[in-house]
Amino acid sequence: MNTAQIQTALKTKGYDPGEIDGIRGRRTIAAIKAFQAANGLLVDGIVGPETLAKLFPAGAPAAKSPVIPVAHGWMGEAVRLIGVTEDISDADNPLIIGWARDLDIDYNDDGIPWCGLFVAHCIGSQLTEEPLPNYPLSARAWRSFGTECSPQLSAVMVFWRGSPSGALGHVGFYVGEDRDAYHILGGNQSNAVTVTRLAKGRLLESRWPATALEPEGIIRKLRPDGRFSENEQ
């Protein structure tokens, strides 16, 4: 199951998600909520099993690439943004600055660490009722986000940087793991949105959005390709 299939089903039933582009944007979320309200479902914008059953009464079609569960909309947004880079000149990437503007966060220079902003955008744009940390630009502030969970697919992973007892940190999303490292999809990793390996010993917290469906505990075992990241913020 993927977002484009959901958008098509919504449009067929009279709920306009906008362009059928496979992106879970605001119009798609609004269409999901309208469909849920009309069908006596919990209006949360999350396409869980009950919403899927109503949306596809004859059975949901199989996804071509079921890598990210459809209920993990924040992770889908993170994957979509892989490759986004900050502007290393005196200018700024307007996309990154726009994430802060949409969330009413005081941020106007992508030379300032933006790993927390990236996570805030992915969560805030997809889980519109989810409380964000008071200062989401701080990686360690995400230690109080949502609820504690074990490291698993789509979890918010908070790491120390510099010193375990210091103030610096890094935050991103779990993609998988090998024996020694977590593979993290995050922003400001070598000045871009990438997947990189962070040593397991640096993990401080693993957190799950409070308004999402219960975590499934999906663990992805990956090959230990690549060196440990030493350039993330």
Automatic annotation (TrEMBL):
SUPFAM superfamilies: PGBD-like
Top-level taxon in the UniProt lineage: Bacteria
Positions of the Peptidoglycan binding-like domain: 4-55
Record-given protein name: TIGR02594 family protein
InterPro entries linked: CHP02594, Peptidoglycan-bd-like, PGBD-like_sf, PGBDSf
UniProt xrefs under NCBIfam families: TIGR02594 family protein
Organismal lineage: Bacteria, Pseudomonadati, Pseudomonadota, Alphaproteobacteria, Hyphomicrobiales
